[in-house]
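Support request from a user on the community tier.

User writes: "When I paste my structure tokens into the form, the page sometimes reloads and wipes my input. The last time it worked, I copied everything first. Here is what I submitted, just in case something in the input itself triggers the reload:"
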């Protein structure tokens, strides 16, 4: 039979235990880091999805609101123009505006002539 050296056996077992606990600690730390990274990744993904949903909802609400505004104002505007045209009010309004512009043009011409006469008399 061969002799077993108790001291060397004790040292070997002790070193194996140290190595095993060291490896176990490294794996545990690595597992914690990986889980933490995955958790942060999942959380950031959830936040990004929620934020994008809110943005999409707000854009859709803005589009819907502007669509309602434009269609309503278009309907009101078209109906008003058709009603005024059918009654002849539109033509009267346009002709009144034209007459006002002609009167304003005549007044400006008279003022211009008056200013020219005043300058000529002043010199």
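"...and here is what came back when it finally went through:"
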């Amino acid at each position: 039979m061969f002799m077993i050296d108790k001291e060397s056996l004790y040292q070997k077992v002790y070193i194996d235990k140290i190595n095993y606990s060291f490896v176990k600690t490294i794996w545990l730390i690595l597992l914690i880091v990986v889980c933490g990274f995955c958790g942060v990744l999942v959380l950031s993904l959830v936040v990004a999805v929620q934020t994008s949903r809110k943005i999409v909802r707000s854009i859709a609400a803005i589009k819907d609101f502007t669509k309602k505004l434009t269609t309503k104002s278009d309907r009101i505007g078209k109906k008003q123009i058709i009603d005024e045209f059918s009654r002849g009010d539109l033509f009267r309004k346009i002709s009144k505006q034209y007459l006002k512009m002609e009167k304003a043009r005549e007044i400006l011409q008279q003022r211009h002539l008056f200013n020219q006469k005043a300058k000529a008399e002043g010199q």
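Agent notes: The reload is a front-end session timeout and is unrelated to the input. The two ends are 144 Å apart (CA to CA). Residues 11-69 form one domain. Escalated to web team.
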